[in-house]
Amino acid sequence: MKTAGVVIGVVLTLALGSDLFAQDRPLGQEPDSLFRVGLTGEKIVVEPDAIIPGRYTLYWEGWVCVEGPDPEALRFVGQTTLDPPGQWVVATATQFGVSHLTRGQSSFYEKFAVAHLDVVEALPSPSAKSTFRLIFEKDQKIKVKLSAFVKTQARDAVPVAEATYTLRPLGYGLIVAATAGDIAGVRDLLDFGVDVDSGTVQNWTALMAASSAGHRGVVRLLLDKGANVNVRGRSFPFIVSPFGASLPGGYTALMAASYEGRADIVSLLLAHGAKVNHQRSDGWTPPMLAAYGGNGATVRLLLNRGAQVGRGDNAGYSPLALARINGNVRGARLIKARGGKIAVPWDAFPE
After folding, report:
1. How many other C-beta atoms can be found within 10 angstroms of the C-beta atom of residue 81?
2. What is the pLDDT of residues 278-312, one digit of tens each?
3. All domains of the chain, ordered by start, with CATH?
């Protein structure tokens, strides 16, 4: 029996965040006695990854990010409910600590079981149909509630922060198939009734995944099936990454394709109505991402569709500055020809 696990999600490398905890609750009267907690890099894992008889366990894992006066004083409890119950069985409540955190901003990677499935007979080969269709029921939802408690509080005390969010495993399966360029798997899941716009907690969708990975055939299929070309990722401004950086929200499929320099996909998304000047929460737009991480071809496509070159991000950096900073010579030349100016606010980073 294999133990590596099937990943039913994606680790977001495009600086996305989530609204895991929708509220903060003060621990005392002092202004700094406030814990803020968030989640990033979340995914679902099924172990084992072999379609054979045995117990399958569904795990949640990701970076739990904590900002507060004393994160070592916190403990977390995760609980699961199924809607509808279906063939999966809820795993027992899981408690995990944060003793390795330090005062201030920090993060820890955590994993706990949310549900079990006992398979008695061998399942059909996944070669003809999606693996996810074989082990998950249509429309089944798994709700995970995470609660943060102060260690000195009783187990039944009111948590200082908590949130419940919904996982749709088949939607995560769609994202994995799109990331891999598995057109047959994507079509099979969509025909089965999976929401084409289903996403992770951060609302990272199959269209974003396929656009980032450069799978034009999958992107076209998703668009033909009604995918929202302008769906946006989510974040909360207080969430920090494992590296301490703010996580911007508002990411779109066009931004993903522009940053990766996928000119053919940029063209396809634009033809389907992708908004060329959408702003992320940090002020970055598709032309900025193309200037910094893409190439001249993607910059040209965006400029020809009305990309703005005079707008800077929240820190003041212009598209031309971003192109030059990262060595996109052709992109910089194209932006300058359209009237783009250098804007590098060095004073934005005081010593």
Report:
1. 15
2. 999 889 999 999 999 989 999 999 999 999 998 88
3. 6-175 (2.70.50), 276-348 (1.25.40.20)
